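Lay summary. Proteins are chains of building blocks that fold into shapes, and those shapes determine what they do. In this project we predict the shape from the chain. Here is one chain we studied, written as its sequence of building blocks.
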Amino acid sequence: MPALPATNVLGLGISAATRAKALDVIEGCIARRDRQYVCVAASHAVLECHADEDLRRIYNASAMITPDGMPLVWLSRLAGHRDVERVYGPDLMLDVCARSVTTGYRHFLYGFEIDGEDVPSRLASSLRERFPGIRIVGTCAAPQRPLTHEEDVHVSQEIDESGADIVWIGLGTPRQERWAASHVGRLSAPVLIGIGAAFDFHSGRKPQAPAWMRSRGLEWAFRLLSEPHRLWKRYLFGNAKFVVLVLVQLLGLKHYALDLNGGDSGPSH
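And here is the predicted shape, written in a compact code that computers can read:
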């Protein structure tokens, strides 16, 4: 069952979270050794879930779907959750890492090898410098292709042997969410968190939008200018599609059932 109330956005249950509440949910899972996974969602993820029923079930079965983008914060507030704030994936990672210096939480970083570079190891070095005393108990850099069964078993064993409390997954949406859902019952770590771009930002591989742009819902513009060839279709067509679909829902022209146990949450008429 979800730990926080949720707002139905195209059949996805966006948690009525703040940064403090999100941290409480994660710490609660660790304290109870309650094996769960956490998703962060911006508009692009909502659109992917709208188009993919299986992915929508995966998100809705998570312990929490944080409002990673400002449009989801605004929709949550419109639905009556006035205290909701943006729980941005990279900020969530920093909040948890800062807390873990005193609590002793153990972290495992699972991401990609990109252009021959071990991004998780680079991120580990950055986090150790930023948070002296943090316990990063392992890293794994996956190739940018599906793993064989033997490779996947090896990764799972490596994570379990590390004794990690939190596994940070930087494989990008939706691969990281699918991986979390398929491994949550198999790994001993109580919390798996798909964190995407945080690996790039906090390792220093890619620039991050300034805080004033992030707080005003303009991060998409910064990222588009930074990576126009990769992102122009997502933002040009995706943002317009998101606005249209949400307006249709708000006007009551299409209704979406919401099953936070991970069942069918497709449109109903």
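What the prediction tells us: The two ends are 26 Å apart (CA to CA).
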